[in-house]
Amino acid sequence: MTDKSLSVYLIGDAVGGYRNDDSPKDGCKVSIGKIRSGKTVFLALVITTALTLILAGCARSSGLVASEELETVAQGIDKSLMCPVCPSETLDQSQVEIAHQMRVMVRDQLAQGYSRDEILQFFVNRYGLWILAEPPRSGFNLLVWVVPPVALVIGGGILAMTVRAMRLGQSRNAQETLSATAELEPYLSAVDQEIQRLTQWRGGDDAKGPTTTIPEGTHIEAFERRAE
Question: Is the pLDDT of residue 151 over 60?
Fold first, then answer.
């Protein structure tokens, strides 16, 4: 038996636990099979460990993403609910204790798997529709969304018509005043001339006093006031 055959035989006997009468050839075959099997197991362990680490990392990453998404949804719900003791503030604005408790309840219910609508309905059942920052767009509450825009449009139309009518009225009055003045101008001029003639006649000579002359274009009312 050569040294090489003896070495293989001893390896096979040590790994496989063969008897002394087993042939070296059989021991060699068993030893090679065992070595290949061990490599396969080791490779499988390496792959399994790598996959486990990858999945753990993915799970942690997905957990962070899920947590961020839940917080985003929670903040949206906070903005949709009014504070019970501060009617002018939503949950995200109020700093009172009950608002803090409600924010905690929102996040607990999200963590339990409740949806946004279910959480909003929970608070509506507890406090009433007034707890919602925005009334639902259905039923009688639909008027809250419809009436303001309609009223704004109608009010704007009425205001525009009023302004237009005022402008037309002012323009019409100005035109009527100018027309009336133009029509009376010949008569007023005649009256002024007559007043001037009478004044000169009453004044007479220098012995009777100075003659009062009325400038042309002065109406009789102005002359009478000046005479008084």
Answer: yes
pLDDT of residue 19: 46
**Calpha distance 26→23 (Å, rounded):** 5
As given in the structure block, the two tokens for residue 124 are 């509506």
Q: How many CB atoms lie within 10 A of CB 60?
A: 10
**Cβ–Cβ contacts within 10 Å for residue 164, how many?**
10
Q: Tell me the whole-structure pTM to 2 decimals.
A: 0.38
Number of Cβ within a 10 Å radius of residue 106: 26
Helical segments of the chain, H only: 3-16, 24-80, 97-111, 116-127, 142-203, 220-227
Alpha-carbon gap, residue 171 to 166, rounded angstroms: 9
C-alpha closest to that of 69 among 101, 104, 119, 115: 115
